[in-house]
Amino acid sequence: MQDLIVDLKERSYPIIIKKGLIDNINIEIKKIYKGKKIFILTDKNVGFHYGDKVKSCLSNSGYDVKLMALEPGEETKSFDTLPSIYNEFLDFKLTRSDLIITLGGGVIGDLGGFAASTFLRGVAFVQIPTSLLAQVDSSVGGKVAVDLERGKNLVGSFYHPKLVLIDSNVLYTLSDRFFLDGMAEVIKYGCIKDKEFFYFLKSLKSKKEVMNSIDKIIHRCCFIKKCVVQNDEKDTGERMLLNFGHTLGHAIETYYKFKKFSHGEAVGIGMYNITKLSEEKGFTEKGVADDIKEILIQYSLPYQVDIKDNSEILETIALDKKNIDDVLKVVLLKNMGEAFLENTNVEFFK
Ligand code: GLY
Predict the structure, then answer these.
(1) Buried-most residue among 91, 168, 177, 287 (CB within 10 A)?
(2) Which ligand 1 atom sits nearest the alpha carbon of residue 242?
(3) H or E segment to which residue 157 belongs
(4) pTM
């Protein structure tokens, strides 16, 4: 699989997608890092499967390595977790010329990336995403953040890694639910930018068939994402297209206090329902919503919720950070693979 380069001038970096990468991580790290100390941040689940392997691979090739394994789950991505990480950095005498590796899903990537961006005003870091969601989305593009009690991702920055290493073999230890969670974001790329890719995903009949093409699938998603990020790094235009299904999805996640639906599941519901609305309003070609519904069913993802009174959902949408001066930018599809931004307001969802 050909390496991708996120081309951002002096902040450019490669994305390497290769099965078995995690077994010889030292080879790729050696190419970009000439220092001695490496701090690995992971969670206890990922650490259980891959922590020792990555740590000893790096130690055996001469690095001085420390590993910190946090509790798994979104609660860990809290602003309040940061001091414990900074303290570990200090105990390890980490300097600005050393390296941090984030080994995990979106929580570890976002949190570790944010810690890397702020400690000593910035330490270089490498992303090794281990969930499908992180491999196709959050590890690429430099968005790093932590949650506050009053909302997710409220404190963050744009801070790019030096390298993203993606080994799809690690997906075999991911639960089916979280594999499918990632598939919702994969489907999103087809919806917004690549009709052929969407119908290719629709042609796959089982998880086995998906896994047979998984590197190609991840590569396509990362290619689309890196092109979008290159055009709009700071998320003021085209990058917002990556939020297709997210406004409604986020409101549904919030309504259920992040307990009932995973992020991908909520995004799936959001993609179908916004497209249904937008078909009704004449923005989208007829039949696109049904295609989305069919693919969600095929991947065992939900496409609807049974909420009797949607006033709370509308209130959350009204508070969405994409709602500026009463103008809400929503991502709609003109046709499959052709997303655009529409300036509207909360009335759109009524
Ligand atoms: N996950 C959306 C973005 O990176 O912009």
Answers:
(1) 168
(2) 2
(3) strand 151-158
(4) 0.96
